[in-house]
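Field reference: "sequence" (input) and "structure" (output). Example, ATP-grasp domain-containing protein:
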Amino acid sequence: MVATLPEGLAYARVDLLPTDDGPVVLELEPTEPSLFLGTEPDAPARAARTFRALLG
C-alpha cells in the first residue's frame, strides 16, 4: 500500500485490522502531527536527515 504513494514521502502510517478475509485498511496517514519524536532519542536526528534529503 505504501509503495503506491507518491515518491519522496518521508512518512506514512497504515493502520490495519486483521479479519478472516485478510487485513483491512482502517486508516492511511501520509502525515503525522507529532511524529512521536520524543519517544526515541535518535528519532529527531533521523527525521531531520530524512527531511534534508527530501529537500535536496
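The chain has one domain: 2-55.
Residues 7 and 54 are 10 Å apart (CA to CA).
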